Amino acid sequence: MEEQTQQNKDGNYGDGPPEEELKENDSSVDSDSLESSSTTDETAAGPGTPPPSDESIITDTTHGADIKKKNPVLRGVSKITRVNIYLLLFFLLLLLAGIVTYVSFQRNKAEEEKKEALLTEPLSQETLDQLKQSDVRIGDPKQILSIESNAIFSGKVLIRDSLEVAGQLKIGGPLNLPGITVSGASAFDQVTIKNLDISGNTNIQGQLSVQQGVTVGGNLSVAGNLSASQLTLEGLQLSGDLQLNRHIDAGGGTPGKSNGSALGSGGTTSVSGTDTAGTVNIRTGGGSGSGCYVTLRFAHKFNAAPHVVITPVGSAAGALNYYINRSASEFSICTTNGAGGGKSFAFDYIVID
């Protein structure tokens, strides 16, 4: 046992290599440590394990301890490769953006050229044969038919539902509508309307010319002058003064009459005028005495007994003691003394309610 130990110290015996060979082997291990460590790591990792990154591990076993170091060369190569990939992706995005911009520009340009030029494309014979049918249906109510080009219809166009026009509507010929509803402002140069029904207010800036009669169911307010060649009113109420530049011509029906006892035998009377004003002509007969000469019945009776004013015409009428009897429907011309037979005279009358 002691001999074997001594032989190992001298380097002549034993299983292991001499001490000098061990030193040479240690130096060779140091020189080849990069390759051996890398190979050792790859082998230890096993197949299928990804290679180490730029932070490659260098194992130093000089003093029996492992020291991990980063490889600067591999780290620089990795950074350059990463920058080149990003730069390539940036140029690729610029190229795609340019292509998309160019295609969009060409498409818009083609659409503008189509809008400017109205092209005529003949229809196929199959399409023409289909259009010859009495009723051709295209799509269903849920679908929308979009016509990008201009369209010309030589015949009639029937729209069973509502028509919505987003732009201007220009009509070259007459427009016939059974009814029209306008919610906004409208301007017309000339309009011919057979029947016009206006439920709201109406403002006419210019002159209103009406060829036939005007019927006003409510009040008529005129701020300016009212000029009419003839004005027919059922009733007239004035809150101000009435100024007449011409004569007053009272119209209406002629009153009826009946002779009185004072007229005498063979006497006659006649009436010319209306309920408002007129003249009564009287010619007495034999035995004329006091009493009433004539009674006038109004064509339209008053609401109450009106105001009646009579004026004698001629000296014979002035010599009479005349008076009247009146009611809402008639008035009588009477006297307290007889005029005598064969006398002619007259009375003018004015009747005001």
Describe the protein's architecture and organization.
The chain is of the alpha+beta class. It has six helices and eight strands; from the N terminus they run αααααβββββαβββ. It has helices at 2-10, 19-31, 33-45, 72-116, 125-131, 315-318, and strands spanning 256-259, 268-273, 277-283, 291-297, 307-313, 322-326, 330-335, 344-352. The strands form two sheets. The chain has a four-stranded antiparallel β-sheet with strand order 1-4-7-6, with no helix packed on it. The protein has a four-stranded antiparallel β-sheet with strand order 2-3-8-5. The protein is rod-shaped and about 160 Å long. The N and C termini lie far apart (173 Å).
User: What oligomeric arrangement do these chains adopt?
Assistant: single chain
Binned, the helix content reads 25-40%
Largest sheet: 4 strands, antiparallel
Distance between the termini: 173 Å
Number of helices: 6
Jot down its keywords.
disordered N terminus, 4-stranded antiparallel β-sheet, rod-shaped, 6 helices, 8 strands, Immunoglobulin-like, single chain, 353 residues, alpha+beta
Short characterization:
This protein is of the alpha+beta class and 353 residues long. It has helices spanning 2-10, 19-31, 33-45, 72-116, 125-131, 315-318; strands spanning 256-259, 268-273, 277-283, 291-297, 307-313, 322-326, 330-335, 344-352.
